[in-house]
């Protein structure tokens, strides 16, 4: 690879400003020109480094979704005419707050508010394009702020305890260490344990941060409880690979992967909407974009082309295709209609699949030390042995 440049955090200012400006400007064929400087800025970041592995990786994971959102909002979608906030939003006191429907004729201040709200709503919560069937259920209407904050804090405590236990396992198990034997060294049983531990650790850390943020925003009156459906769906839904990615995992990238998939299927390939060919073109496009995004981030961090994200994410689309076929055959020719027993089979299939494929993606990152910056404190170890602060793990340990 080329020698990386030193990343300058001031680049966030022109980058975000360009995207916001494109959302604020009234509809115009010249609006697309604002995407031109976004391309070299993104290329520069892909060749940059902060000097720290984890920071480089999370820089890529943060920057690149914005690139794809910019592609959607600037190149593919006439946002002010196509995207609408919902007409009303029910507040905690049961009243309805009207939302302006037409934005292109609004004042520049109102368009700026609208643009910021759109950019801060990657899942489309409160917008007409919100994927309501894919997101977890919202807090029931009429839930008070105090009740919502209390519920969020209780959930956050449970997530923290589970993450604390997983973090202690990461520190104890050398398979998570940079100089360890890797995830595939000690047989399938330990491989399954490591994958499960990583999964729970990632799930709880992701939803913990979102839950605390929701509690703070609602407590401060910035937003309403109904605007904060859980970031991740319930694990009980993870009995197929499709449901895992479409219902359990976060939907922060659904908007732009769906838009690009539909453009490829319908505008470029001229496939008829609702057909299997259209659906699977969109499926593989979605995972190809996710694969490219994660591969670029790990390439930035590893400073090498040997990451596993491309293979891992494209395998997910293949697995969904296979399970769709098997479910179709089972329903059509064997009369299988689901039920508790089939769900157990589904859970086993999902566990086996991720045990098989997750090391392809994570082992290069683990070898570089991505697991060495875990939670620095432990309540469980503190209560057990009085060790509240954990010593840092050295990448070369």
Description:
It is a single chain. This protein is mainly alpha-helical and 397 residues long. 59% of the residues lie in helices and 3% in strands. It is built from 13 helices and four strands. A two-stranded parallel sheet has the order 1-2. Strands 3-4 form a two-stranded antiparallel sheet. A hairpin with a 5-residue loop joins β3 and β4. The two termini are 27 Å apart. The model has no long low-confidence stretch (mean pLDDT 92). One of its GO terms (biological process) is lipid metabolic process. It is a multi-pass membrane protein. GO terms for molecular function: O-acyltransferase activity.
The dominant shape is globular
As an assembly, this protein is: single chain
Q: Summarize the helix and strand pattern as letters.
A: EHHEHHEEHHHHHHHHH
Mean pLDDT, nearest integer? 92
Could you give the distance between the termini?
A: 27 Å
Low-confidence sequence ranges: none
Q: How many β-strand runs?
A: 4
Radius of gyration: 22 Å
Instruction: Give the count of helical stretches.
Output: 13
State the helicity in percent bands: 55-70%
Main beta sheet strand tally, sense and closure: 2 strands, parallel
Based on secondary structure, the structural category is mainly alpha
Biggest sheet: strand arrangement: 1-2
How much of the sequence is in beta strands? under 5%
Spell out the blueprint of helices and strands.
Layout: E1 5-6, H1 12-24, H2 38-46, E2 48-49, H3 53-76, H4 79-82, E3 88-90, E4 96-98, H5 108-119, H6 145-172, H7 187-219, H8 241-248, H9 254-268, H10 276-302, H11 309-333, H12 340-367, H13 379-385
Parallel strand pairs: 1-2
Antiparallel strand pairs: 3-4
Helix pairs in contact: 1-3, 1-5, 2-3, 3-9, 3-10, 6-7, 7-12, 9-10, 10-11, 11-12
């Amino acid at each position: 690879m080329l020698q990386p440049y030193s990343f300058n955090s001031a680049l966030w200012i022109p980058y975000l400003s360009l995207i916001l400006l494109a959302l604020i400007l009234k509809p115009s064929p010249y609006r697309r020109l604002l995407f031109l400087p976004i391309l070299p800025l993104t290329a520069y970041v892909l060749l940059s480094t902060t000097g720290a592995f984890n920071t480089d990786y999370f820089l890529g994971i943060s920057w690149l979704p914005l690139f794809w959102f910019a592609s959607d909002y600037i190149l593919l979608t006439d946002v002010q005419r196509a995207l609408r906030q919902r007409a009303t939003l029910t507040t905690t006191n049961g009243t309805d707050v009207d939302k302006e429907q037409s934005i292109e004729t609004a004042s520049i201040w109102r368009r700026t508010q609208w643009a910021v709200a759109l950019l801060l709503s990657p899942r489309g919560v409160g917008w007409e394009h919100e994927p309501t069937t894919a997101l977890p259920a919202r807090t029931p209407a009429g839930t008070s702020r105090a009740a919502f904050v209390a519920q969020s804090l209780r959930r956050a405590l449970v997530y923290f305890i589970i993450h604390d236990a997983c973090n202690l396992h990461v520190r104890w198990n050398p398979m998570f260490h940079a100089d360890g034997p890797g995830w595939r060294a000690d047989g399938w049983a330990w491989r399954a344990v490591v994958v499960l531990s990583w999964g729970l650790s990632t799930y709880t850390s992701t939803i913990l941060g979102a839950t605390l943020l929701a509690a703070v925003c609602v407590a401060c009156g910035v937003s309403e409880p109904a605007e904060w459906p859980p970031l991740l769906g319930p694990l009980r839904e993870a009995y197929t690979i499709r449901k895992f990615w479409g219902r359990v995992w976060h939907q922060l990238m659904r908007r732009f992967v769906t838009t690009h998939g539909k453009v490829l299927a319908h505008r470029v390939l001229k496939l008829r909407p609702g057909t299997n060919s259209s659906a699977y073109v969109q499926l593989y496009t979605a995972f190809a974009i996710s694969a490219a995004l994660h591969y670029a981030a790990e390439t930035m961090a590893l400073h090498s082309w040997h990451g596993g994200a491309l293979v891992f994410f494209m395998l997910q689309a293949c697995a969904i295709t296979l399970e769709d076929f098997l479910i179709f055959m089972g329903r059509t020719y064997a009369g299988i209609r689901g039920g508790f027993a089939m769900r157990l089979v589904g859970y086993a299939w999902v566990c086996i699949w991720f045990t098989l494929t997750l090391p392809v993606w994570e082992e290069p990152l683990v070898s570089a030390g991505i697991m060495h910056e875990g939670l620095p404190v432990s309540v469980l170890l503190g209560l057990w042995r009085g060790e509240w602060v954990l010593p840092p793990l050295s990448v070369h340990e």
